[in-house]
Amino acid sequence: GPLLAGRGLVKAHGRTEALRGAGVELNAGEILALTGPSGSGKSTLMHCLSGIVRPDAGTVTYAGRRLEELPEERLSELRRTEFGVVFQFGQLIPELTAADNVALPLMLAGADRATARSAAAEWLERFGARGQEDLRPGEMSGGQAQRTALARALVTGPRVVFADEPTGALDSLAGEQLMTALVHTARETGTAVLLITHDAQVAAYADREVRLRDGVLAPQGVAA
Ligand code: ADP
Ligand code: ADP
From the UniProt record, which GO molecular function terms apply (predicted)? Predict the structure, then answer.
């Protein structure tokens, strides 16, 4: 079966019903693009699938485990070890340099600082952020922040990476370079990727595309 499956997901933010019964499956090693108009529920779906938000109804199954049945600390542990997340606005730690932001998840997993920092430098280079090791988020361009966030999401070797508009702050050439690096890395490591994008050129890097509309999956092959 699929590595990750959301079924019948419902989530309201106040009176806004962001998800109204959305379901999606992600296979091991698959790169899946999640597309759809602004406000269709893409980010909310990603937050439910990655265990950041608990849905009001529906189920999320990861590797045979039901996320809604896991106590908070088991869910956090699973997120730390199995998932990598890239938020739309980077959400790097402002006080830390790029290298320390990327090194942090490894240090939390028990690596010493020197090992973590050298792995961080390699990951930054892989995503085209060489020479940016000592920049703090406030000193980075949007693109530099996104490259750093992507390196941070992948440094621990997760089985699934969730990326919300990872190319949003990049011009199209830089976006293609980032996607090439992401796809290459995902193939090499067998990491599955759930990619939110509104950009058809970015979606074209995926193995498959699903489209959300008003909080549910649009029928396959039907444009939103
Ligand atoms: P929930 O309803 O899931 O508890 P919250 O109200 O806690 O969500 O908000 C989660 C995050 O989303 C907050 O950081 C909040 O600022 C942000 N947010 C609030 N309103 C919106 C909106 N209309 N669209 C997107 N994000 C929003
Ligand atoms: P998308 O990622 O497709 O743009 P979202 O999941 O961010 O869609 O949002 C779906 C709907 O829920 C939108 O109407 C949005 O304004 C609303 N929404 C999302 N997050 C919040 C929040 N934290 N608080 C209030 N409304 C939210």
Answer: ATP binding; ATP hydrolysis activity; transmembrane transporter activity
Residue-wise pLDDT for 123-177, tens only, equals: 999 999 989 999 999 999 988 999 999 999 999 999 999 999 999 888 889 899 9
Instruction: Read off the pLDDT of residues 40-76 as tens digits, 9 standing for 90 and up.
Output: 999 999 999 999 999 999 999 999 999 999 999 999 9
Q: What is the CA radius of gyration of the chain?
A: 17
The number of the ligand 2 atom at minimal distance from the alpha carbon of 215 is 10
Rounded to the nearest angstrom, the distance between the alpha carbon of 106 and the centre of ligand 1 is 29
Tell me how far the alpha carbon of residue 14 lies from the centroid of ligand 1, in angstroms: 9
Residue type, 1: G
Ligand 1 atom closest to residue 13's alpha carbon, by position in its atom list:
2
> Could you give the C-alpha distances from 57 to 3, 6, 8, 190, in angstroms and in order?
20, 11, 7, 31
What ipTM was reported for this prediction?
0.73
Could you count the other beta carbons within 10 Å of the beta carbon of residue 45? 29
H-assigned helices in the chain: 42-49, 72-82, 98-108, 113-126, 142-154, 172-189, 200-203
Q: State the amino acid at position 35 in one-letter form.
A: T
